[in-house]
Recover the amino acids of this structure.
């Protein structure tokens, strides 16, 4: 069931921000950098190498953004989001504002590199904000302090004022990408299940929020149980499982209109745990009939469906590889729940890839294709782990009373999952962890939440 008042809010807030955000590269300003300090000849390009498991955070100065007209407090709010995005990765350490003694007096002023080196800043972010009517303009420039030169061109972002957080994420994305060499992930959304009420009578509704937990918008109400939201590859549609009709069935939602319809399957069957193919044409899902659960595939446009995996065992939690050629799923055909891969066209036999201690489930293929994340249970402990798609190089990232349901950031760097606290009043919360196992942290979101699905980077 859909909450009509929420439909209005989502359309009014999200759609303009998605459609009207514009990027405009500024010409490189003629900074008097040599006169202000000169380049350090022995320095290479500024870069954080994050292939290893241990990284010393890079000292970064994000100076107060200049108000170039009408911005007021918004200039500082945008600066704070940029700084929080970058330091939240644990790859950057912010230079305290009290130590920023060499701030330029204007966005185009020369940078005093020696003064910034004196406080050990390695990177410097300058920004400026202006607001006219309902539009906000944000400019930024990034500097390699030790090389004494800009790191890439300055850029300008124009957007509706209500889209200011997206602009801040865009700025942080640019800084992150230029310094790490990786695709960023800050300007992205997460679908999740919000939970209220006692543990034995949860009420659930599906929300969509910024990656950092801000701006939650509800796309269903809590009148019926809803679980397993999954974005389409373009982020414009959502599939999920609903029990509104008394039996699990898969719903397809157009997020622009916040309207959902059921994807019908054969009468007398239950369908659940859907996931889109990388081209958005297909979904794979679990279908239960007569007490047995198998993996099926459906053409979203026509509703034509066919089985991919049919055995006497229970198969569920299917998902595609990023190239669409394989699927990964969990099955108990070996006697305990384990992870299998097989060709997405249904040819060939499933190959088991999990052979460690305990049971494995909820596999999720990374966007890079190099890893599969999973839930592992060993005794009374749960873990989120990763392994290569051939089952090698298994590594556990977390351990707790109950961790489950990993979902990847768009760049494959971070995994988000659900952590349940023990006891009768135990509560699920969303957490994230770097793929190296570093930087585990709870998501800043009010109330209980579970079952995250991290959507694509927004355009």
């Amino acid at each position: 069931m859909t909450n009509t008042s929420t439909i209005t809010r989502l359309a009014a807030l999200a759609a303009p921000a998605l459609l009207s955000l514009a990027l405009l590269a500024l010409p490189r300003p003629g900074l008097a950098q040599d006169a202000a300090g000169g380049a350090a000849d022995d320095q290479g390009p500024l870069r954080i190498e994050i292939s290893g498991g241990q990284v010393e955070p890079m000292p970064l100065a994000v100076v107060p953004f200049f108000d170039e007209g009408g911005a007021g407090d918004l200039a500082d709010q945008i600066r704070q989001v940029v700084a929080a995005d970058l330091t939240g990765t644990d790859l950057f350490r912010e230079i305290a504002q009290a130590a920023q003694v060499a701030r330029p007096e204007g966005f185009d002023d020369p940078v005093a590199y020696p003064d910034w080196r004196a406080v050990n800043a390695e990177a410097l972010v300058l920004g400026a904000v202006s607001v006219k009517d309902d539009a906000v303009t944000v400019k930024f420039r990034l500097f390699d302090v030790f090389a004494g030169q800009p790191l890439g061109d300055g850029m300008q972002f124009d957007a509706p004022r209500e889209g200011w957080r997206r602009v801040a994420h865009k700025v942080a994305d640019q800084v992150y990408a230029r310094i790490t060499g990786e695709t960023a992930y800050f300007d992205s959304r997460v679908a999740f299940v919000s939970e209220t009420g006692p543990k034995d009578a949860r009420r659930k509704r599906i929300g969509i929020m910024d990656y950092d937990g801000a701006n939650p918008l509800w796309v269903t109400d809590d009148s019926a149980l809803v679980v397993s939201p999954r974005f389409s590859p373009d982020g414009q549609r959502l599939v999920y499982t609903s029990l509104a009709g008394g039996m699990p069935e898969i719903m397809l939602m157009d997020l622009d209109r916040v309207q959902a319809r059921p994807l019908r399957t054969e009468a007398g069957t239950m369908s659940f745990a859907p996931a889109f193919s990388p081209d958005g044409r297909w979904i794979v899902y679990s279908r239960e009939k007569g007490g047995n659960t198998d993996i099926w595939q459906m053409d979203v446009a026509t509703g034509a469906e066919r089985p991919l995996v049919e055995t006497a065992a229970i198969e569920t939690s299917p998902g595609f590889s990023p190239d669409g050629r394989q699927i990964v799923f969990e099955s108990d055909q070996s006697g305990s729940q384990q992870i299998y891969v097989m060709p997405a066209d249904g040819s060939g036999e499933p190959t088991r890839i999990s052979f460690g201690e305990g049971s494995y489930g909820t596999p999720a293929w990374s966007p890079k294709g190099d890893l599969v994340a999973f839930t592992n249970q060993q005794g009374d402990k749960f873990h989120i782990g990763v392994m290569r798609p051939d089952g090698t190089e298994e590594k556990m990232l977390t351990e707790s009373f109950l961790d489950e349901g990993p979902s990847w950031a768009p760049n494959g760097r971070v995994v988000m999952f659900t952590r349940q606290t023990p006891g009768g009043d135990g509560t699920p919360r969303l957490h994230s962890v770097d793929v190296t196992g570093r930087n585990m942290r709870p998501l800043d979101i009010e109330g209980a939440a579970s079952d995250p699905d991290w959507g694509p980077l927004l355009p």
Residues 189 and 196 are 22 Å apart (CA to CA). The two ends are 29 Å apart (CA to CA).
